[in-house]
Amino acid sequence: MGLYDIPAMVDYVLKQTSVKKLIYIGFSQGGGTFFIMNSEKPEYAEKIGLFIGLSPSTRNLYSKSLVFRGLLAFQTFRAELETVGIWEIGRRGSPAIGALNVLCQNKLVAAILCEAITIALDAPHLESITPEIERRIWKYFPAGTSVTNFEKFGQALESEKFLKMDHGPEKNQELYGSTKPPEYNFEASTVPTVIFHGLSDHIVDTKDVEWFLPKLPNVLDYIQVEDPLWNHLDMTYSRFWNETIFRPMKKYMAQYDSI
């Protein structure tokens, strides 16, 4: 994603709009893959006027999420899953996910089962995500991802650094020239940067954010949401998003829009 997909999207937008630079807003993995792009293709920093990171996910050493910590298992079972032809988890349109999407449209089920899953994934903030928004989330979530991506997150839960994929000593030697995966280079992200984060984020913990922040060379602002219950999913789904996130974000977007 960081090496191919995001650079392709950046180039496409620049070509279609004829602007010199764009503003990149990345939530969670969308923030982490932005750092990967800059590390692997540092020339792309010249194409971005401003980076806004909403709880960017890099290493996840201190994650408190029970569901997210379950991804550790994919380090053990990925090969077995792929052997039997399972390459993707949570695919939209699959019978199990389709049934969950339908069940969570029921108000009672959404209020009990689906909200319980959301809380296990992140942290409780009951007044922030309304029942209507909860049902809307579960109409489209989850959308699926590869078992490789799950394994990479599993590795990030145990690593003290933001590392490339660990394929094992032999494959690492072939790909990286060393038996261990190298670190991504945060210093290559020279783009003016604004980071938003919530103190009750159980997926991307404050300790992990404050670990990578000093490594970034051009941080304009680090905004910790005042609400102590603000969690990971609030960054995109909260009914208070406009006032809490968009207003300060808009200030920086206006400042860097003409660059």
TrEMBL record:
Full protein name: Uncharacterized protein
Native source organism of the sequence: Choristoneura fumiferana
